[in-house]
Design a protein that fits this description.
It is built from two helices and no strands. It is mainly alpha-helical. It starts with a helix and ends with a helix. Keywords: DNA-binding, Isomerase, Topoisomerase.
């Protein structure tokens, strides 16, 4: 995924309320967090 596409996905996740502001330093998730169901449809 290109950086631009990655940012677009992050912005979409933010707009739908799944993540906090995409340009923060928050980059850790619980090992139990399954993000595939969120990310795959955005491809």
């Amino acid at each position: 995924m290109s950086p631009a596409h990655t940012m677009k996905v992050a912005e979409d996740l933010y707009q739908t309320g799944f993540i906090s502001y995409p340009r923060t330093e928050t980059d850790r998730f619980s090992e139990k967090t399954d993000l595939q169901w969120v990310v795959v449809p955005l491809r």
